[in-house]
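Hi W., the zinc ion complex you wanted:
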Amino acid sequence: MLRIVKDKVKSLHQPSVEIALPLEARYKRILDAMLQYLKNSQNPEWRERHPRVREGVGLAAPQIGINKCMLAIYYEAGSEEKPKIVSYELVNPLIVEESIRLCYLQGGEGCLSVDDPHPGKVYRKNRIKVKAYEATLGKEVEIEAEGFDAVVLQHEIDHLHGVLFYDHIDKLDPDKTIVDAIAI
Ligand SMILES: [Zn+2]
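Structure:
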């Protein structure tokens, strides 16, 4: 099973390096393992057997000790009538467009690498466009994301720059209000 690097470790605060394409098979295997880790973490029965594993929707390679630009995202969203599964294996993701409008998760953000509580608002761009190589599809993609989907992508891409969610929280005013920001 993958071992998660915690935020006491310096490499988590350092930038990752780009990966050469075409993607080597060993990186695809790592991405598959990361995606599977997320799926398992969302399975209550599996978690019961692995009580130290926390539920997660995204995992970036530096979180498993590999400072290379790749990340996995997996979660089920949408409504009961219209369920959607968000699943990505992204290599060298780059935010190419972003909205001025901000958003934040009302419950705050969490991270598999962060065990201590860090209350406060993490403001993100409400809409982004990301370019990346998608390893499941085996091609370059452009992803347009909004709201929660955009938050997750920004959180994971931040990891590739050595940035953690609490780095965004205002130290003097953690609950700072930004007018027009969308609460999610
Ligand atoms: Zn994280």
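The chain has a mean pLDDT of 96.

W.
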